[in-house]
Design brief:
The protein has about 750 residues and is of the alpha/beta class. It has 18 helices and 21 strands. The strands form four sheets. Strands 1, 2, 3, 4, 5, 6, 7, 8, 9, 12 and 13 form an eleven-stranded mixed beta sheet that branches. A six-stranded parallel beta sheet has the order 18-15-14-19-20-21, sandwiched between helices. Strands 10-11 form a two-stranded antiparallel sheet. The longest helix is centred in the middle third of the chain and has 17 residues. The structure holds CIS-heme D hydroxychlorin gamma-spirolactone 17R, 18S. CIS-heme D hydroxychlorin gamma-spirolactone 17R, 18S (HDE) binds next to strand 3, strand 4, strand 5 and helix 10.
Length: about 750
Amino acid sequence: MEKSKPAEAVKNAVKTASEKIADALTPDVPGAPGSAPPSVEEPTTPHDPLPPKPEQGAPQTRTPTGAETGAPTTANGQQGAYLTTAQGARLRDTDHSLKAGPRGPVLLQDHHLREKITHFDHERIPERVVHARGAGAHGVFTAYGTAEAVTRAGFLRKGRETDVFVRFSTVLGSRGSADTVRDTRGFATKFYTAEGTFDLVGNNMPVFFIQDAIKFPDIIHAGKPHPDREIPQAQSAHDTFWDFVSLHTEAQHHTIWNMSDRGIPRSYRTMEGFGVHTFRLVNEAGETVLAKFHWKPKLGVHSLTWEEAQMLGGLDPDFHRRDLYDAIEAGAYPEWELGIQVFPDTPEETFAGIDLLDPTKIVPEELAEVQPIGRLVLNRTPTNFFAETEQVAFHLGHLPPGIDVTNDPLLQGRLFSYVDTQLTRLGGPNFAQIPINRPHAAVNDMLRDGFHQHAVHAGVAPYRPNSLDGGNPFPAGDAEHAFVDVPVTVAQAPKVRASPASFDDHYSQVRLFWLSMSPVEREHIIRAYTFELAKCYHQAIKERQLQSLANIDPVLCEQVATGLGLPAPQPTVPLADVTPSPALSQVGREWPSDGRTVGIVVDPAGDLDGVDEVRRAVFAAGMVPLLIAPHGGLVGDLPVQRTFATGRSVEFDAVLLAGAPAPAPDATPARDAKAGRPGPAAVDPRVLLLVEECWRHAKAIGAWGAGVTVLEQAGVAGTPGIVAANSGPEALAAVQQLMAAHRVWERFPASVA
Ligand code: HDE
């Protein structure tokens, strides 16, 4: 990236001012929309389509039946330099419809007009009924080999690399809803294994609201906006949600996870993932174990504060997807370890008294260690959102040999639901042939015809047995790595609509979660319940949920009741005597700061050499520096990414103050409400607002030189997590150290123990 100085000087001399700004801005920070900078004039010299951006990936060019084609991945995109019809006929004009004279009428024979409008009319497909809002990325999974003893799955052999596509999502909101709402997050991974595709369709929480798939429409209807007025969007803070979960108390465990900081992740990169259900693994010898899948993020589990989440909903509703794409573009590749908890496959299907078929229960990591079995790195953003992220189709039944399902009644229902939903969403039974869904294993399935058939099947005998196609396709055995349906014994029992008695315990693990939280996390949980219930209209619903809280913990119940102005009820079940699981807390450890954003407030009249030095040091530390200045363009030679008017504290993980900039010309309430009340101020009031907000959100703030005076003016000097340093590098080093704990937790002593 470093250019030679004399060459730079000559180039600069012949450049216009705006070219210089464009040049300075381009290579610095992620987020450029396209692989080449645009010219000011409309380009007119024909050339082939521009290549994707370097960090963009695309589905491999496989045939619909899984064979490698050897074609570049751009072969799936538009070709040639000229505008054509869908049939490839070149066009001379797409701006005017064909008319009988310039004043019309428009002629029905205009096949180009009709093709263009008809296609446009059908551009939208039904959004996912749940998990509609999502973002995806390509990557690679590398196996450690540590799972070889328990599963024959080829992709888990030591050193084996497998292409993956991951889609993260929220659950309740529509496709256009905000990323940072309080909700569960989907974490769905498609492994394109050589033995058939494996979809691990998990969430960022290890438990689910319901124990039986038949209740899924109920919980989702309750969580979705009210059917009459269609509000609220993408939120659980409303009557129907709390009506259902307070009546159907098996939902209480998942609900407390949602009310905890896990419901508002800082980034997809800082989320754990869980397969939720217990799976059955089978090894080469045919031996089986039960197992739960876990994703552990390299950056640790971190969350937003509730105020940040709310502000981002308006300021940057794309916060999580932008963060994912920008991190990959900046080379800070998101990374997770896949791990398994392994349990003996006993007839009872329990471990330490915990029913492994109950998806509202976890097995604490302290009882069964999560053993790492491989590493996932996301290193390519999609080239086309619709083709990849929207059309990707996950299904729990996409299983390779070595991984099988259990009788978890939630899992069993999902085995039906996912294919069923794709039929409507993707318009027919051939969704596996869409490029992002194409297996990387040879496909010979005897499935034929149907909407959008991409394969040109040969032969005359798509049936078995046959002799006309020479008997092909042939059944495979163990030697050919055929899928294994584990011959599990089914207990002799009457046919009933009922659950095992162990499924009736709805509170002990909710209490375990509550008691495993640090004091500050408990404060957040209290606030979340109080906020959500206060948003409910009916008192009966608040009272009913308070009863569940009383059954979880009296302190939790009392605190929420106080906030609601209602009496705290007594428990109706004995409070469970549980051992906390420290692994559930996200506070108290230290993590790398790769790919974090550091805002640097710049005073054009201040120490710009110092700013440049710090900016480079932030890059060198694997983070992204964003310069915040009174105006856009350049400050000295430095490119500005945010102005006082456009930037907001919630975009930054930490802030450095490199000066005390005087109020900019637009710092008037008439122009920018953030400027606050009119009045004399030594520093731009938006800088003070930035500092106050970062302080409220327990973020590290560093300053040097004149910047130190801003700390004093903002009234935060000398408080925890505030660094007044002698130089920029010193301030950065101290701030980076504070960022390892994610937030300056001691800034807010907790009121509950
Ligand atoms: Fe899903 N779920 N689900 N779910 N789910 C869907 O499939 C369903 C459940 C999860 O990024 C749908 O293609 C039922 C648990 C994720 O494309 C649908 C039940 C877990 C995604 C569906 C569940 C999940 C989905 C909607 C109760 C965590 C997004 C569109 C038995 C372990 C995948 C689609 C993506 C998507 C049904 C419960 C995770 C309708 C019936 C438990 C991450 O098929």
